[in-house]
Amino acid sequence: MPVPPTSAANLVYQIFDLQRAVRCAAALNLPGEDTGVALQGVLRFVGERESRATHLAERLGVSAPVLSRHIAELEEQGYVVRRPDPEDGRAQLVALSPLGAEKLRAIEVHRTATLQGLLLDWSEEDIEQTAVTLKKLAESLRTSVRAKAAGSTTMTTAAQE
Predict the structure, then answer these.
(1) Which of 33, 41, 65, 158 has its CA 20 to 30 A from that of 51?
(2) Which helix (H) or strand (E) holds 88?
């Protein structure tokens, strides 16, 4: 059953409101930081696994030039390293340096403590339910985006007939 337009519109509003609130909360806790919120996001994705910059840009939803500037800045700070891709010598793989892994751990500890402080009036059950719902939403969005990018199987079937 499709989601009613008013419910979908409300969800869109709530998602964007959540994004603003998260950015504001993160910005309050960044004084003196050498990595802003955008660079921290890139650092987190790089920390998941070594990968090509083009793959990272796609996952982050940013253009290759924007990501290239972020990676250059993180590399200058000593947080990431690049090496030639053994499968394609023209491409490079990006990974966290030991200093970058340490920085990412510190960021995550700091963000966790900040969130704990901001959610003092939340129960553990509230937090767990919210985490489950956000995970489900993210998975649904990712699956839908991948399906659109790959082409709908219904369209493929119709085209074959």
Answers:
(1) 33
(2) strand 88-96
pTM of the model: 0.74
CA-closest candidate to residue 41, choices 26, 21, 20 = 26
Order of strands across the sheet with 88-96? 51-52, 88-96, 80-85
- Supply 7's token pair: 């419910």
Helix axes 64-76 and 53-60, enclosed angle (nearest 10): 110
Backbone angles phi, psi at 158, to 5 degrees: -60, -40
Burial class (CB in 10 A: 0-12, 13-18, 19+), 43: buried
Phi, psi of 30 (to 5 degrees): -110, 0
112-156 pLDDT, tens digit each: 888 899 999 999 999 999 999 999 999 998 888 766 766 644 433
